[in-house]
Amino acid sequence: MFSALFSHSAASTADFSHLEQASVEFRDVNKRYGDHQVLNDINLTITPGEVVAILGPSGSGKSTLIRLINQLENLSGGEILVDNKPTGRLSGNGLRQLRSRVGFVFQQFNLYAHLTASQNITLALEHVHGWKPRPAQERALTLLENVGMLEKAHHFPAELSGGQQQRVAIARALASSPQIILFDEPTSALDPEMIGEVLLVMKALAHSGITMIVVTHEMQFAREIADRIVFIDGGQILETAPPEQFFRQPSHPRAQRFLQKVL
Ligand code: ADP
Ligand code: MG
After folding, report:
1. Which of 30, 50, 94, 145 pairs as cysteine with 90 (C-beta 3.0–4.6 A)?
2. Which EC numbers does the record give (predicted)?
């Protein structure tokens, strides 16, 4: 159904096939802002290559949970292991290394407005990862082709639709060959007609082998692509289950109420 959206539909999915994967483990993770306990004793192990959808009401701690993984926020307690190694509190090179292994896609795309699509990708490759301009440019074009955006490589974000900008942001998140990719409501800022093209790219990624954690309100999408649903409310994981089980018969009353509202 979605493949007609791309002029290079085969290429748009094929090159996601060799992605690396790593585990993520939360051990007794707590997060507070001042007196406000936002995450409460989170224990969760995500296995290499697993696709996990994080569901829950607004304000339940979903964004905070995934932002802790690449240290966009700092822990208040507990630890997070990536690929079985505690990440600790990193800065400088260590933080750069962590972020090159863990890609992040934001709700609001966060592209640099003064850079073209391809420059948005080459910037980090050249200045953070030390690539030479020519290979960086080639890599950017390959990534843009993978997300069906090759024709727009030299356009600025303002010249792109929201769906196109988000596809560029996904290509950018993949530039450093991460083993884990995190999505924070990647389609929530999009007009309805653009959601499909972004979900299509994410679906291809989900099949690529990369470890993927997606905060989303797209229930049908979560049901289709996730290996596991993690339901969170009030800063706690209340239920984890395979999608079929979660959507057919959620066991926690709050998950039941949540589904009644959103389905
Ligand atoms: P969700 O993504 O599920 O909507 P968030 O993780 O964004 O939830 O937020 C969880 C809770 O933490 C909310 O009550 C929110 O107001 C609070 N919160 C988030 N970020 C901050 C911050 N930087 N400072 C203070 N409180 C915050
Ligand atoms: Mg959020």
Report:
1. 94
2. 3.6.1.15, 3.6.1.3
